[in-house]
Amino acid sequence: MSDLGDLYQELILEHNNAPRNFRPMATGAQAEGFNPLCGDHFTIYLDMDGDVIRDVSFQGSGCAISKASASMMTQSVKGKTKAQAEELFSQFHRLVTGQAAGSGAESQLGKLVVFAGVSEFPVRVKCASLAWHTLRAALEGKQSSISTE
Amino acid sequence: MRATARTYSNAPGPARSREEGFDAERARRDFPILGQLVRERPLVYLDNAATTQKPQVVIDALTRYYEKENANIHRGVHFLSERATEEYENARKTAQRFLNAADAGEIIFVRGATEAINLVAQSYGRTHVGAGDEVLITAMEHHSNIVPWQILCEQQGARLQVAPINDRGELLLDELEKRLGPRTRMVAVTHVSNALGTINPVRRIVELAHSRGIPVLLDGAQAAPHLPVDVQALDCDFYVFSGHKVYGPTGIGILYGKAALLDAMPPYQGGGEMILSVTFEKTVYNKPPQRFEAGTPHIAGAIGLGAALDYVSGLGIAAIGAHECALLDYATGQLGAIAGVRLIGTAAEKAGVLSFVMDRVHAHDVGTILDSEGIAIRTGHHCAQPVMQRFGVPATARASFALYNTREEVDALVRGIDKVRGIFAQ
User: Fold this and answer.
1) B74-97 average pLDDT score
2) Which B positions 279-318 lie with beta carbon below 8 A of chain A?
3) Mean pLDDT over residues B328-333, rounded?
């Protein structure tokens, strides 16, 4: 039985209330992400120093899961290389789809493990991963917006 | 077998005080799905504007057809084919009575309201709407009553005009009238808004359009389950609804069209059933309604829909509407009193739809938390994104009522919303 408390962890609610790096950036790459199913809509802004994410921010609206995920993602990938960010996304994706415990020695997820509860709510996986898909699009310099559908 | 006959006064009197005339608890027992536990709690199903549950008589009609009557229609000389044809055509007559259409030939079986509107747009629309002409809709339409007209306008070089609504979600009739111009070739309006619950003054809209010689299509997807519909009294040219929103199967719906219009319309799809004779040089099309029912139709669905319409007619559609209206009043009072809850859609004339948003809580989170209590509501844009844009919200939570809902279920919804507030108050 899926437990609501596993989904709405305190840290997630806190990031939803006070999202970090919640601002636009004028320079650098950006990408838009939509979840047409529920109307989530975010823009991710990137400031790259060569291959390294010097700064990352976001704006938009969405449910608590998608917003907190975007907020905590910006904290997690700042200062990382593109490849490191990609690896983190893979680990995060396995976490929210229930394919990994997220606590192994190889895990770099850190605080992101609070999203483990999402795996009990399959329809919310898209919410948790929207910001990450959008980040990937921004890193790849794709101009068009991406959609979860 | 017909639905259990019950006697209710169906005089369409003042709806709000008539709740006691309807026994929802008794009607609930006709719906086997409602007896189950969801998330270890009794199911509270408040997503009826998306689809309604099915009474046993509808399930039985489908089973009986496949167990005892299955055959193709209108072409077999054998016993089963005759029987299936008779049942299918009886369902057409049931739909005719349900809408009070003048003739059964004005009833076309389609997949649902969406296909019905596409059929009218492509068959009537492509022969009557040309370059520079206009199609008029409203700001509260479901995507199904927007996109088919957009496609038509793009094909023909025509323009889509939109009549605005006010902050309560009511159509501005004078604004609609202003947009009825010399190039308007079609008015397509929802009878009841799926996202807001607004009941539109459709009789008046038909009068305004007809006084200028413009035909009117009414989207009855959210009206047919809740209000008595009389297409002759409305004098509309087309009326569409989906079977699954009025306790029938999915994949079946009704297009009503006035005979004179249907007779002059070209086919929507080609295939079997819709022809009289075919050679490689020339095909002669069948009369309506067969002209618009190409291919083997959803025979079981049509029979199931007939059973559903008999069922609601047996209970009395006016009595059902009054019951839902009383529930809506109760729920509006209860939810309106909760701090941080804002109702979207507060028209004076409403059917049983309650859309709302909560301060600092996204509708999707509301939906997940209510689901954990066994309460099913819809969250999102309700396939009416322009309505969401009009009210400046990304999404709403929507509770929508059916004949089997009770005050206790509204109370459960209120407790669920309290739980949402509790979680997000941290």
Assistant:
1) 94
2) none
3) 98
If you average pLDDT over residues B257-268, what whole number do you get? 97
| Residue B40 to chain A, least CA–CA distance (Å) | 9
Percent of chain A with pLDDT over 90: 74
Q: Where are the strands (E) in chain A, listed by range?
A: 30-35, 40-49, 52-61, 146-147
Give the Å distances, CA to CA, from B238 to B145, B234, B361: 13, 10, 41
Q: At what angle do helices B407-424 and B363-371 cross, to 10 degrees?
A: 120
Tokens 């009522």 sit at which residue?
B401
Distance CA B296, CA B292 (A): 12
CB B37 within 8 A of CB B374: yes
Interface touch B365/A64, C-beta < 8 Å = yes
> What is the SS3 assignment for A126?
helix
Q: Answer yes or no: are the C-beta atoms of B40 and B371 closer than 8 Å.
A: no
DSSP B386-407: HHHHHHT-S-EEEEE--TT--H
Q: Which positions in chain B touch A62 (Cβ < 8 Å)?
A: 362, 364, 394
The topology (CATH level 3) of A4-141 is Sufe protein. Chain: A (3.90.1010)
CA distance A88 to chain B (A): 26
Q: Domain map of chain A by residue range?
A: 4-141
Q: Name the band, by pLDDT with cuts 50, 70 and 90, for residue A102.
A: low
- What interface predicted TM-score (ipTM) does this complex get? 0.88
Task: Kindly list the structural domains of chain B, giving each domain's residue range(s) and its CATH number in brackets, ordered by start.
Answer: 15-54+316-424 (3.90.1150.10), 60-313 (3.40.640.10)
Report the predicted TM-score, pTM, of the whole model to 2 decimal places: 0.92
